[in-house]
Design brief:
Layout lengths: L1 H14 L7 H15 L19 H13 L18 H12 L16 H9 L11 H11 L1 H4 L17 H12 L19 H14 L4
Bound molecules: heme C (2 copies).
The site of one heme C has 22 residues, from α6, α7 and α8.
Length: about 220
Amino acid sequence: MKLRFLTLLLALTFASPGYARDLEKGKEINATCAGCHGELGQGGSRGEYPRLAGQRESYLVNQLKAFRARTRVNIPMYPYTQERELPDEDIKDIAAYLASIELPTKWPVFKESDDALTRLTLTERVMIIPRVTGDLANGEAIYQKKCVTCHAKNGMGRGMFPMLVGQYTNYLKRQMDLYVKGERPHDEEAVGGVLNSFKEADLQDILAYITTLQDQQ
Ligand code: HEC
Ligand code: HEC
């Protein structure tokens, strides 16, 4: 019994490097974020507010710290990340909570016994980004050659590199434009880097390709 407890303790300690995250606390904090990003972290106003649900935890932590330090400049986000509002502990909790939310990309199949509320709750979670037009073959070729090392083949990201799939297209485009203009650093090793080498049409093609990836989730 003792040994099992120790093993569990060790597992918990090493699963989350150095700290425990409190998902309940994260959920509480989310009440202040929900006004813009939605209660399920699904974002809103067609991408004016990005989706946060299912985004990578360490990426969320980094972005919240970047808003707080104003290395990523955004007026609406700034007040919500000030030290008094969002200390490091809270950043960990809210990031863990948001990262844990799964939003399905397929409509649910209802059981006869499901009542109206169950049906509504299941339907509300579904998040499907509409396809956009573009040269899919070109988008795929660029994406698979230039983006997968960080954002992964399926667009789900890895480690601190964000998930792109399932995110609003116009939000992603706005970020690409900021990167190209040098107003948001894309990747620390290559500021301004990879995205500056493409034509506008290529960016559109990449975005179109990304919208096809969610069907495979
Ligand atoms: C008043 C509206 C508003 C509120 C409230 C708000 N945000 Fe935001 N948030 C935004 C906007 C707008 C953006 C997009 C910024 C951009 O386009 O660069 C954003 C972006 C973000 C991003 C970056 C997403 C990405 O993919 O890079 C994160 C993370 C985030 N918000 C977390 C939060 C958290 C956590 C809270 C609550 C503590 C919160 N926000 C509250 C408006 C808001
Ligand atoms: C070497 C790693 C790397 C490569 C390769 C890379 N990215 Fe990124 N990408 C990042 C990092 C790191 C971030 C987060 C930057 C930050 O902190 O603001 C990011 C963020 C993004 C975002 C914003 C996501 C959000 O939620 O705000 C978009 C859009 C994006 N990348 C598109 C691309 C595309 C398209 C390609 C290929 C042409 C690409 N990236 C290649 C590392 C990379």
